[in-house]
Amino acid sequence: MLILNMFLCLFLMFFFFKTPTLALSDFTINENIEYLLNLSGQATVTHQIDITNNFSQIYPKEYQIQIQGLPLSDLNATDDGGNILTNFLSQNDSSQIKLKFNQPKVGKNQTTTFKLIYRVPELAKHKGKTWEISLPQLTDSALNNTQITLKTPSDFGTLSFASVPVKFQEGLNQNTVSLQNNSHSKILIILGNYQLFDFKLNYSLKNNTSSTITSEIAIIPDTYSQSVYYQSISPSPLGIRVDPDGNWLASYELKSGEELNIIADGQVKTGLHLPVETTNLEKYLSDQTFWPVSDPQIQDISRNLNSSRAIYNYVVDTLNYNYDRLNSSGRLGALAAINDPNNSLCTEFTDLFVTLARAKNIPAREIEGFAYSNNPKIKPISLQNDVLHAWPEYYDSTSKTWKAVDPTWEKTTNGIDYFSDLDLNHITFVTHGLDSQNPLPPGSYRNEFSEKSIAISFATEEIKTVTALPLIAFKNDRLLLQNYTPNSQKNLLLSSTNLSLNQTIDYILPYSSKEITIPKMSFWKSLSSRHQKITFTLKNTEEQVSVQTINYPPHFINLGISIIIGLIILTTSGIIITSLTHEKNT
Fold first, then answer.
1. DSSP annotation of 443
2. With b meaning 16 or more CB within 10 Å and e meaning fewer, what string describes 59-77?
3. Is pTM beyond 0.85 here?
4. What are the chain's domains?
5. Which has the higher per-residue pLDDT, 360 or 23?
6. Where is 64: in which H helix or E strand?
7. Which of the listed ranges 101-110, 159-168, 352-361, 512-521 does the model predict with the highest average pLDDT?
8. DSSP secondary structure letters along 347-370
């Protein structure tokens, strides 16, 4: 924990009073702190502190600062008269600094100004594609105003998460994060344009029935905030479908008694802000198992909660995390969480938020997935199914998008704000909206001998998503695009000069196909020999181009029809001519 304590030793100029009472209100104290970071994450920290006397009889003579959680070096403290450092004691990342002013200012409204400068070797920690910066939490109530400026190399990227309100300014070589911290809140800043994770998922399926069955497994999907790239899914599924909640379900056929082990590996990119489809939001308001929206107790509690923020705060304030239940597989639900608030896990925090939100007609759903945590005590994750975590999403009608929040981690971190923004370290495995329990997430498809079925780590480099473009075929009077690769195909441009076709295909799932309606060619035009084959051009956003020339079925069908019609006409004409000739001869 990073803590910065400041203690001001106040001294009085004696005039008429022998034993005066000193108070913090005798001074106005303002501080500006600048953190200047280099590319290795080292920071040069400069404190400029102004102490203004509110009375003519009282002035400051000494100042003491305690900083916990940061290893300091190269300490320097000065005022107008030079060095003011009298003692510096550092042990176990805890530093005590004592200062004595050379020329303290005397008199009302006079200001004593001094600077404290030191270095911190690893203030910014490099985690994958992001830089995480924890600043000391101010605990000194004597400070009237604290301005904090964080200057970082532009290579650190843009602001992706802040636990307190900040202003971000992008520069050519340096970016600036500014904040005013009077609340003594914890300050966590994460910089980075996106995050990358490598993953490997193991699934174990078994058919215990006497007949052949088809089983489905949930794989990591694309969402509005993440994009997934599969290097392989082995063995390949029969197909992949999307359920109404946006989950990706891969299907496999298992014969009686067959056991099947499946491995899916690839990379997921988080931190995206893609458009959200918002049709039929009413389906995210109904009762479900674990979400008793209509229950009188739920309705009574929700009556006084008038916003998603109020619901979030209620959940954080009401529930307490029970670390002893981490390896428990039991899920209690919203009502049990209310009635036994000290026995909660992430599922209870999530279930209560979703239930109360729906009770206030705010669409909400549960996300189960992976959340990176370097300190499971502060950011706990369930160990029952590998490293799964749960958090809720609610639909924000103002921004017209889903917003993810994490009340569990706000509780366990003692105040880091996970409502205003969510970090880049959350990966969606499955979404539960229409069904509070299904589909089961990766990590749940294990046999009794399975140990760890999920392996996820930060990726150092983004995989180049070069993949084969879909194959094109005709299916009746429609066009069929077949994606035989383990990756989704997005934003494809399909064109054909023969058919005056220019169409964008937004999405084709891995190992799946999509049917496209195409312009119809006139009957007589289709008979032309140059329309025996049609050339299609398919291009993706990576400028990959595929030119495919295939037989045009209507040409051959219509040609056959015209030949048949011609034969009928010729046959009919021959019969008529023969008949007329016979009549003439007779």
1. T
2. bbebbbbbbbbbbbeeeeb
3. no
4. 3-191 (2.60.40), 281-435 (3.10.620.30), 471-556 (2.60.40.10)
5. 360
6. strand 58-68
7. 352-361
8. HHHHHHHHHHHHHTT--EEEEEEE
